[in-house]
Amino acid sequence: MFDDNGQLWCAELDNGCITRIEDDGSLDRYEVGGRPSGLARGQGGEIWFCDSRRNEVRVFSSATGRSWPVAGSVDGRVLNAPNDLAFDPCGNLIFSCHCQSRDAPDGYLAVLRVSGACSVAASGLQFPNGIAFGSDGKSLYVAETYRQRVLVGDWDPVTGLWRNATSIVTTEGPAGPDGLALDEFGAVYTAVYGDSCLVVATKDEVFKISISGRCPTSCAFDPAGKLGLVVTEAETGSIVSISQSKKGLPLHTAQRGQHAST
């Protein structure tokens, strides 16, 4: 994730850190504990993330180094392995809970509204993972890892429901699609965990971008264009920069003052 200043951040799942990558490649690690994953930009240097150990959605302040929970339950039930997240144009936060559902469709999407209410947005998913919005803010893309496909469906911010999901691309390998990013023309880039590649789906074709390391987990476009498409790779614990002439689709953020710091 790139912050308001164009600085690159990532989550280190097993280290329990939110980490800033400096221009010289050095790392500034902030210990937040748990198992952090999926970063989304808030306001004033805040970073929203999922924690699958605490079963919470949390916010990290880069100004203070502190983090705190903003959601721990959905429809009265404790969250089950929250994983990735994205804001819609209205400031609602949609996040995936994979529920460790490798063999059964027990995963779901949830929505944390600006008001703080949290409800299920879709269910019956088999390890829902990366999520991203299309340019219209109404098309929501979801990686369903263990069905090895990327879905797109209709997002309704009024009802808080994701409906009419259809598959736009399938993947190969021992696992499946993980993190997602869209470019300015609407092409969908999918990091395919276990298959050493990204799969790119445009309106006209589907193709692969190979990378070193078997386990790419997430991808994001550098808004400044310097780093192109950035990919996190879990097998080697590295960050890969892929040259790209295309820009990424601008991402939505939390609304100002939303879930104020505690």
Can you summarize this structure?
The protein has 262 residues and is mainly β.
Structure description:
- It is a single chain.
- The chain has 262 residues and is mostly beta strands.
- The chain has one domain (8-242): TolB, C-terminal domain (Neuraminidase, 6 Propeller), CATH 2.120.10.
- Helix content is 0%, strand content 52%.
- It has no helices and 24 strands.
- Strands 4-5-6-7 form a four-stranded antiparallel sheet, with no helix packed on it. It has a four-stranded antiparallel sheet with strand order 10-11-12-13, with no helix packed on it.
- The model has no long low-confidence stretch (mean pLDDT 95).
